[in-house]
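Journal club side-thread
Mid-discussion, someone asked how the predicted structure for our own chain would compare to the paper's figures. Pasting it here so we can look after the session.
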Amino acid sequence: MQRLLPRLVLCAALSLVAAPVADAAASTISGAVYQDLNANRVQDSGEAPIANQGIYLLTADGQSQVAYTSSDANGRYGFPAVADGTYRLQYDQASWWGLRHDWVPTTTGSLFPRMTVTVSGSAVADFGWRAINRSTDIYMPISSYTGANGLRVKSYDDVVTAKELYDDLMQGTLVGSEASAATLLFDFSDNTDMVSLSVSGSSGSFSNYSATAQVGYLAWLDGADQMLFHEYGHAWSLYYAYSVQQDETLAAYLNARGVAGNALLDSSHAWNRRELIAEDYRQLFGTPTAQAAAQENRDLPRAADVPGLRDFLTTTFRQPPPGSPAPAPAPDPAPAPAPAPAPAVTIAQLAMSPAPVKTSGTASFSLSGPATVTVSVRDAKGTVVRTLLQGATSQGGTVSSGWDRKNQRGQRVKSGSYTVAVDATDAAGRRVSAVAGFSVV
């Protein structure tokens, strides 16, 4: 779960240029800033103005500042006495920061409060904003889409659709059989980017793998699909680790990456083995935009600079390791099929909230049926920090347990990356587990 992606900066390193001298031929750019409640791009009666919004007038390439102003009490702003030509109008980042989580522009043609204006005499450029419509019910996304490969995508806002997210992910170069075991949730948890998984069995006999990747709306604004490909990289890599390699330690990958045995491995978020492979997936197989983000771990060479790593991930990592037992031949004649067993219990919606944890948090998840559950908090190395529930009996539904940010000895834990882990065993003795990452600050 990468947290260090670069943020989009609306106005950074802008050089100042002299304002043009006013004359009879000077032009004017003006407009209104308002709540466009019906999203019709017109300020209708009853739609409130938004005051004190900083707006830059920049050169057409966006690199140099021509002027700066703020909207008045009536939401009006203006740049008088500007030379004819083409300019970029752009919100001050400080003003945008106060709106962007809950409001989206209606008049700019994008999710961002910026537009290009060509003026000769006068031009009007309004900044209308509408409230973002969201669902907080896991079972009622705003939009859903299931691809032909089985990948399920659900968006919980009306800004970015599930189909748009799916299409973007399909622009990557390595989406395979793991897709049918993956679900992507967009903007369900407030600015939470994480993956939870469920798998049955133990090393050598893992089965029933499924993963749910969550991507937050603000991460989408800050880095477009960089976080999307990072989080899907978790779902992708853990599918092949559990279901194909049958080795959750990622040992073969660590050797291919050249970090096996490194003393720093799992010592921090950037050195966590699961974060490393998710980052490599983003860098090697994401869209150009996804690949553009700097690698989180600056101590290691970029994925593209590691000889053989791309080939390893596209071939060897997706094949059973040498010496794996071959599938048993089908009996002849085939026996009558046995009655289908009852489905194994499943774990969903595992999360630690609030995120990040400061003084305390609550681990919560849902069970599809009765089971005995153990819940623990673990550090970046996978060591149990605190056991929250031990062999507790649940009849299914929502399960939660509080954590006071202390370890087993009652000591307050340090800031860093942690996971909450759930192990559940149903009445038939089938075991499933799920983990979800979170930060402590």
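Post-session note: The first strand starts at residue 15 and ends at 16.
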